Structures are given as C-alpha cells and as structure tokens.
Amino acid sequence: MKINWFYIRMLVLVAVTLGLVAFTHKRNANRKVKEVKVNFEAGANLFVTAESVDKLLIQNGKPIEGQNKEILDLKDLEDKLDAHAMIADADVYMTLDGVVGATVKQRKPLARVQTKTPFYIDEEGKTMPLSTNYSARVPLVTGVSKEQVNEIYPLLNYLQEDNVLATQVVGISRDKTGDYSLTLRVLNYKVIVGKIEQLSSKFSNYKAFYQKAIKDNSLEVYKSIDLRFKGQVVGTKK
C-alpha cells in the first residue's frame, strides 16, 4: 500500500496549527490587565483628571488593573465614563499586550450662568455643573434660568464661532423683557442685542459701526450701542 505523504503532512500541519491556536488562546485568557492608560482629546485634562477616570474604571468592585482581561466588559466601562458630568464622550479599548486605554473627550463650556446654583452651558446647549478642578474663562451670564438655556444658546454659539466677538465678550445679561446685552472686555460701552434673532445682521452692522468708530477715534465716547433697530446701529454717548 502506497503511503500518501502529502495528506499526512497536511494533517500534521493542521494539528500543529490548532495546537498553537489553542495554546495562544489559553495564554491570552490567563493574561491580566497590566496597565491603564488615560488620554484626553483636545488639550489638557481641565475638568476631570486622570485619577478621576481611574476611579471610574471599576469592575467586579475593584480596579481593573490586575484583573483577567477576558472577563472585562469594555462597554460597561465606557458607559461609566460617559455618565460622568464632565465627560462628553469616552472610548475604552484593550491592546493585545494587556493594556486598557481610555480616550476621554471633556465637555466644553460656552458660558457660566450666575444663579443660586451656578452652572455652565456647554457647546451642545446643555447644562453642566461647575468643576472643583478648574474654573473656565467664559462669559458670565446673569438673568437667565435653566428654563431659558435653549433661548440663549443660539447667541452663545454665535459668539463662540466669531473669532472677534469670542475674545471681546465677557458678560451677557438678560432683562425682564427678554432683551440681551453684552459687556466687553476692554471697551466701556454696553452692546444691546435685544431679542435673540437676526444675529448675523445685527453683528454685521455692529462690526461696520465699530470699524468706522476706530477710524474716527470715537469708541470711548459711547456708553451703549443699540442693535435692536433693523438696518441701523444707535450709539448713545456718555
């Protein structure tokens, strides 16, 4: 009987391959989490620290470092981070060599609202609590409640996206009629915006007025600049 060495070689190769796969799987199953690395998107960790994130990465009632990596629920860990008041989004992953990584995007406040219990309004128009780790340098808002966050958000978003206004405005106030006014960083006059509508037209008119006043060297003579009137800017002198 002639021996078919080709098939024998193939059977041996398959057996060796399966053995290596089983060995690798068993070795990986027994490998423990050796390290946790926390990374922050878009700059420094201002509102939440790496230590705070580490404390949230808990499973089975204890830190994940040293635990068997096969029993970790990465989705559960992500959900814990996403639930943090200062975190906008989190991604938790594991490398082949047993390192658990967490990439964290922190929430970005656009303004701080001064009320009995102060809070921030973030870039998505949602409220967020103040942080014990960091105080954001954003415009201070007065006269606005949590129920009026949706009303003021378009103004905050517009100011944030305008490179000039974003650096000039330090305060925003709402009066009892629902009209808004801006306080500027350097200039001593108040900018009366009125209702939050037609913002592009209002601020386009304001910028034209501003440039002309610079040429005339007359910015310091005004105590208020009123943008409430369609197609015009009304300046009131001191």
Question: How many DSSP-defined strands?
Answer: 14
Give the DSSP E fraction (strand runs of 2 or more residues): 25-35%
Choose one word for the global shape: elongated
Terminal CA distance reads 115 Å
Helix content: 25-40%
The helix-and-strand class reads alpha/beta
Please explain how this structure is put together.
The chain has 238 residues and is an alpha/beta fold. It folds into two domains: 33-106, Ubiquitin-like (UB roll) (Roll), CATH 3.10.20; 109-237, Rossmann fold. 33% of the residues lie in helices and 27% in strands. It contains six helices and 14 strands. It has helices at residues 5-30, 50-56, 74-82, 149-161, 163-168, 199-216, and strands spanning 35-40, 58-59, 62-63, 87-94, 99-106, 109-113, 119-122, 127-128, 140-142, 169-174, 180-184, 190-194, 222-226, 234-237. The protein has a nine-stranded mixed beta sheet with strand order 8-7-6-9-10-11-12-13-14. A three-stranded mixed beta sheet has the order 1-5-4. A hairpin with a 5-residue loop joins strand 11 and strand 12. The radius of gyration is 29 Å and the shape is elongated. The N and C termini lie far apart (115 Å). The mean pLDDT is 86. Residues 111-228 form the Cell division protein FtsQ/DivIB C-terminal domain.
